[in-house]
C-alpha cells in the first residue's frame, strides 16, 4: 500500500524579531506632526516655481506580522506635500486602494492628517477629521478610501499618515518614487521573511540615491500537526510536535532625492509604464526543510480558471438564444468575411458599451442583450458566443488598454495586468482577425484605439494552444488631401479640397463629427485659418465604416496688395504639419503611435495671369534610420501656368524606441520646415 501523510507542517506563531538590520535601522526621514519651518519660506521653492505642488517627503515601510495563524503585511506611510498654486489643491484629496476578496478585505488603520498654514508668522494647523472619509468602488476587488485635507490654500503644507493591514501576502505594497510634481525625497523600506520569494521589478529612469539590502533574522515557532500515515491495517497515528526555528529576514531600503516631475508626452501609453517605481510579485514560498512551492499562477492555470469561471468561459457557451437573430443573417451569404461582419454588426447594435473596461462579464450575456447595455466583457464575450453559434472558431484575447499600461510578457503570469477582452477569429489559410463590438464607429476587424497596446493573450480551449498575439493593427492612420487652388494677383485664392480620412484617422474624424455635428466640425476646422471662407461642404461615406470618411469643401481666401509685383506664398501652411509634435530635446521612453501612419498631399496651384515663378523650394527626401519612415516633397511646374506640389509622409513602425527619439524629432522638424517653405512669384515685365 502507498504510504501518505495526511497532514503536514503549519506555522503556529512568530515569537520575535531577533536582530536589527542596517536597512531597517536607519532614522526615519520624516516625523509626523513636525513640519520644518523652512517649508514655509518661499525662497526654498524658487526651483519649483513652475510646479503646482512639491512632495517634500514620501515615506513608506512594509513589514510582516503574525496573527490568527498566519502572516499578514503591514504597510505604514507618511506623506508631506507643499501646495504652491491653486491648481495643486487636488493633491489634498487622497485615495487609498484596499483589496478585498471572498469576504476578506484590507484594513485602513490609524488614518490622520493636518493642514499647516503660516498665519501672522506662526504655523497654524488644522486637524483632518477621519469621519469624513468615504468609499469608492474601483473594480470588483478594489475599494478606494478617499479623504480630503481641510483648509488648503496656496503656500499650505499638508501631511497625512495611515496604515494598511493586509492578509493578502500576494498583494505586497508597490512603491512609486516619481509623480507629476517634483519629489524632494521618496523612501521605501521592506522587511521580508525569506519564507516569501518576491520578484522585485524596478522600472523608470530616475537613479536611486539609496539602494541598501541586508539580512537579519526572526524567530518563529512551528508545529508539526498530528495525522495518520499508512493505510489499511497498517494505519498509525503520529503525534504532533512543536519546534522553534530561526527564519532569515531580508531587508531593503530604497530612496530617491530631487526626483523631477514626470512629464506626459505625445504618443505614449499610461504614465504608469514609465514612472520610476517598484513592483512586487509573490512567486513562491519555502519553509524550513520543505520544498519550494510556487504560488504564482502559470498561464495554463490562468487559462483553465478563466474558462471555468462563471463570468468568463461559462458565458461563451450561452449564445444559443441568438439563433433566431443569426439564422436570417447567415442565410444571406456564404462568404465567411461577410458572415463575420453580420454577426459583429448585430452585437454592436444590440448592446451599448457603458464605458467600463473589464474581462469578466457583469451579468449574464442574455441579460446584457435584453438590457442593451454592458461593460466591455459583456459586449465582447457576447460577440465571441455569437460567432461560435454562427460556426466560427472564436476565442477571447486578454489585453491591457493603453491607459492601463503595457503587459510585460517576460514577467510572471498575472491576470491583474489585464483589464479588457476582445474576440479572435481563426480564418482559412492560417489567417486571423481581432474584433471588438464596443464602439459604434469601429468597423469589423478593427480594434478601438485604446486597445492598441503591443500584445495580448489568446485564451484557447486547450491551454497548450494559448499564446501571445500581436495587437498591432493592419489598418493604418491615413490622411489624403487633393487640393486645387487658383491664385489671384493679390495672393488670395479660391479652390476645392477633397480629403479622405482612412483607418484610425477615419475613426477619429467620425467620432468628432458625431460629437460636434457638421457645422461645428467645419467651424473648428477653420480655427487658426484667418481669412478663410468655406462656401460649400459635403461629407461622404460617413456610415461606410470600412471606407475612408470623405470631406469635400470649397474655400476662398482674400489676399493683400502685392508689393513690387512679387507674391510670397506658403501654400501648405494650412494643409500640412504646422508644428513639430516633439518639443523637448530628449525623451526617456518610447514614442507609441499605436499604428502605422501615412499622409499624402497633392496640390495643383494655378498661378495668376501675368505671373511667373521666381523661386521654388528644392525637392527633398528624408529617411528615418533602419527604414523607420520616409518623407518626400517635390514642387514642379505643370501645364497651363500651374504648379504641382506633392508631399508624402509614412511611418513604418507603430512604436519607436527612446533611442530613436532624436531621429524622429529631427525628421518632423525637417517635415515642418519643408512644408513651410515659400514659393516666390513675380510679375512678368
TrEMBL record:
Q: A Pfam family in this protein? A: DUF3857
* Keywords assigned by UniProt, alphabetized: Signal
- Residues of the Transglutaminase-like domain: 330-405
Domain of life of the organism encoding this protein:
Bacteria
Is this entry keyworded Signal? yes
The residues the entry assigns to the signal sequence are: 1-25
DUF3857 domain segment(s): 73-207
Name assigned to this protein: DUF3857 and transglutaminase domain-containing protein
| Source organism | Hymenobacter duratus
UniProt lineage:
Bacteria, Pseudomonadati, Bacteroidota, Cytophagia, Cytophagales
